[in-house]
C-alpha cells in the first residue's frame, strides 16, 4: 500500500496474526493473545502482507 500526501511516498506492509476460541475450549484471554502473537510472527516470517491463523491443536501459528 502506498500513502500519498507526503513529499515522498510511504510504503506500508502488514503482518497479521489471528486466533479464535470458544469458551468451551478452556483458553483464557492471555493464552489467546499469546496464540495470536505466535500467528503474527508466523506471518512476519513468511513475507510481507501476510495473515496467519492459529488453530487449536497446532503448536505454532
Automatic annotation (TrEMBL):
It comes from the Bacteria. GO terms for molecular function: diguanylate cyclase activity. Residues 1-56 form the GGDEF domain. InterPro entries: Diguanylate_Cyclase (IPR050469), GGDEF_dom (IPR000160), Nucleotide_cyclase (IPR029787), Rev_trsase/Diguanyl_cyclase (IPR043128). Signal peptide: none annotated. Gene3D superfamilies: 3.30.70.270. Transmembrane segments: none annotated. This is Diguanylate cyclase (GGDEF)-like protein. It comes from Desulfallas thermosapovorans DSM 6562.
Amino acid at each position: 500500500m502506498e500513502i500519498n500526501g507526503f513529499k515522498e511516498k510511504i510504503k506500508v506492509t502488514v503482518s497479521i496474526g489471528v486466533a479464535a476460541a470458544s469458551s468451551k475450549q478452556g483458553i483464557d484471554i492471555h493464552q489467546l493473545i499469546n496464540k495470536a502473537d505466535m500467528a503474527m510472527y508466523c506471518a512476519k516470517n513468511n513475507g510481507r502482507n501476510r495473515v496467519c491463523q492459529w488453530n487449536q491443536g497446532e503448536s505454532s501459528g
